[in-house]
């Protein structure tokens, strides 16, 4: 009996040789609109599906008193093509993740320490604002502006999860002030005062 | 022969009775994540697939000297579920469509009159800026911040097309200043000065 | 200026009146293959986007010494159509989430307390097994068999996130033994011994 | 032990109460771009997932000596939203399924009796033509023109499967000649001679 | 402050190094079912997102008195993977774009000069016919047969936009008559007369 | 006239040179989450779209008295990216395809000889069981456990079709017992007795 079943096993296994249950990112291969190329299955190990990079607190010794550590497909290759990714937020007292969007994904936030005030703004300009406590979840629909600020006097920590292995991250301030877009064009397209723009360009390293 | 073939015709037609080639929006039915409910095929006419609302120039007698007229599924029901929509931009001299995103779609712009300076900013904060002339196209990838400004001393007109029948439109200034999000939170999450925020809240009708 | 800009605001807002940034589940409306019907935007509040049901530990006083608390679209309506959902795992000492699949989603697991030994099995029958510590992530590709067991002598807690607002959950033991599928057919299709099947049917409430 | 596990069972089952493993078509509910509404799970039986309508030969006593019997979601409600459908082709000697397309799906053909000559034409106008024998498969990529003709002197039978539960079916001759599109416009847009058009309009019941 | 924020900037930027906001086509790399390979971001410039090839009128000195100029991903690499593409139609007096389909996309047409009579035919063989004036839009659902003819005595110009960066284009006449499919098979699968087929094969360069 | 039209033909053909109607798998190129790389169109022939490997009966001289012969994209390259694949089931008297899932696809089964008893189990642990006769279809929703057993005293044959060119196949017994997952962990995660597990590991070649 063993022999016969083993024959069957081999048949099935060989038919599965090319089955693509997953596509661990080969960061050196060509990319397509669907994501990174797949690493050869023979080189894949469990470590491709495990990520330890979000275990430790990020460095919050910066002006926003916060850090955002991504676990996208580029950092966590096992996620490639699976429609999921993650990030860790550390917010020191007074810490802020400024207004930003994820162009390619919706987001769910889970507070694991402290408490975080978060909001998103809809296309109709309505603000959906709430203070989220430890163990609570909040969802931010795809592409909409949102922010997170620490709501307590000690460190808060959250993990966020995205509906894409490549959600993108566009921080509005950086998009407006941390490049060489001319002050004149920023002024024309934001209604902000010239002095305000120049001040923030100075802070964020923008030119023009 | 006619009779036999006619029998065949009837067979095929009846099998097609419920074929869903399209799903013209019934704006009064329930909505799903995939879009509006479908109008009964028996009530659909060619006029559901034609839209005249973008023929005339929009009103540019406003502070941005510009107008944006949408032809999304809500205005043009034949688009529902087909992965496409449109809008018309009219830009008087000095006219500007301020920084904005479309949370759910990529966009292609076609200039049909005049000339328009447009740009988008990538997640890496790089600016892709160009002046587009009549008959030229520019594409804005999904969810990224972009703007359009008139580049000539007379009216410019463009049509834009989206990769969704419901692309959304979030104008950054309106999202930040045209609602009741407190000045304190806007300040914390944008790095803008309080005076600047209050000024723009005043202009855009925001409170708090 | 205020007046003119306000006019523009109204124009834009009205054009956005029907924009569908999100589709909060109306659990009483018709369902479609894309998910639940959308609740009217005028009835949506921030509470639709926040979920507190995973804050407290689940009850682990059961045979598996574990609990799985879902936050799918049915529990957390704001997720509907956004391609994301979540669940909380509580594992007492000796606790086990038995072999199961999610037919419609990939999963990322985040350990927030203790340590969990988890594994998935690929189509080629390879086991990807690892003990995940607090703050670490593991991904389980869509539809593949996987399990989680507590790896420490005290309570472990994890949150899992899915790439669908309706991932499904099929626990293999329940599918095989907790219904009226005849012992004879279970025997024929699993190679398990009759006595074993009858024993587990007894435990899990199956008949036949 | 039974009691405790039973409690766990109930917990899991209740959390699954709203899980949408499938969406059997409710043909009387509203349709969305994603398909038909879902029948209540409590009313679903195994018969919704089984279809007997393709067991018997179709009637080939017609001019094309062939019949096409669909099993799309409208006929076979269990397919709704699952990305699959089927049809049966019966081809008497000399039987032909004329040039047609499926606007919304790719197709795989399986010959179960006789032999069929089939072809599709690519966008580059290349013809991919082959005679398919019993037990062989041929694939027709989405939306491309293709046909099937009986290659033997007795009845041939094939089953075809589509990558959508609503693939559509547009037979070119019927689209051109079986409606009220004016002969003049057909002539202008097909380069066919007026006499030819009028002849086929006559056969197929077209007017104008 | 500058220093600290700059540190934060660098952190964010480096995490974004591999973010894939877009996938400009590298026409020499391998293709996948999702489209062309992506050009290295370091080689991408704004010119990849701008296309001037549709600015000038196409040559209408041909038998159909019309020209179709595509801006698909192969011509306009910035569109790759973004779910959009375009084409320009020039129609001299009497000009016609003959019956055709786009196997992979829906289409929206915008008339920018003159007036165009257009129609599509549904799976139920219903004709949706309308004369579209300058500034008006018409939508053609995916995969369905449609045509456009000039409705005025001077040149008409339209731009069309597709819901895919690779919509395909299959002109029915070319598919039937511009290749080596035998006259006998064309006759059998179209019901056209042999003489008619041979005449059009002659005109269009077909053989067999 | 010929000359002019031919010019038009050439224009259209050249614009189509890069159209991707299909993406025949190049099994040696890089894979992406969307599937295999595309073979050069110039090397594609009709044989890429035809598959003869399911014409002959599979070998049922094994313990399950059954065989499963796949025609996935790895075996039938023309299917790559088209959202379809197939397999042939041969069931000798007493033959069984044991409980299994397809992680990435729904399935439709067509019986072409004999009669087959099949069932799937939903997330709510409901069994949908039916004996399917020649010419009948049964659908198995994505990712759910299902099986097929011969219902007659002679050979039964079925063809199954999947909603993906890469559906995957995970046979529960092989996933549990045909690898090196320790008996202790299998016991903990399945509730099966140690003796039962060791017996099946022995039969299926598992270790540990």
UniProtKB/TrEMBL annotation, chains A, B, C, D, E, F:
SUPFAM superfamilies in the cross-refs: RmlC-like cupins
A single Gene Ontology CC term: apoplast
PROSITE patterns (UniProt xref): GERMIN
GO molecular function, one term: manganese ion binding
Amino-acid positions noted as binding Mn(2+) in the UniProt annotation, renumbered to this chain: 100, 102, 107, 146
Keywords: Apoplast, Disulfide bond, Manganese, Metal-binding, Secreted, Signal
PANTHER family: GERMIN-LIKE PROTEIN SUBFAMILY 3 MEMBER 3 (PTHR31238)
Record family assignment: Belongs to the germin family.
Protein known as: Germin-like protein
Originating species: Solanum commersonii (Commerson's wild potato)
């Amino acid at each position: 009996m063993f022999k016969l079943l083993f024959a069957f096993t081999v048949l099935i296994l060989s038919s599965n040789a090319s089955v693509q249950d997953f596509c661990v990112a080969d960061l050196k291969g060509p990319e397509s609109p669907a994501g990174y190329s797949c690493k050869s299955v023979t080189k894949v190990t469990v470590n491709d599906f495990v990520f330890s990079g979000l275990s430790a607190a990020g460095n919050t010794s910066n002006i926003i008193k916060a850090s955002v550590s991504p676990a996208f497909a580029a950092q966590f290759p096992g996620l490639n093509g699976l429609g999921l990714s993650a990030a860790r937020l550390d917010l020191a007292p007074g810490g802020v993740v400024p207004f930003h969007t994820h162009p390619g994904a919706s987001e769910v936030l889970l507070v694991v320490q402290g408490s975080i005030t978060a909001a998103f703004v809809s296309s109709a300009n309505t603000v959906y604002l709430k203070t989220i406590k430890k163990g609570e979840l909040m969802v931010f629909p795809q592409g909409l502006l949102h922010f997170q600020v620490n709501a307590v006097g000690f460190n808060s920590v959250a993990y966020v999860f995205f509906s894409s292995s490549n959600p993108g991250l566009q921080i509005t301030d950086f998009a407006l002030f941390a490049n060489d877009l001319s002050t004149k064009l920023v002024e024309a397209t934001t209604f902000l005062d010239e002095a305000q723009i120049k001040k923030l360009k100075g802070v964020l390293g923008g030119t023009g």
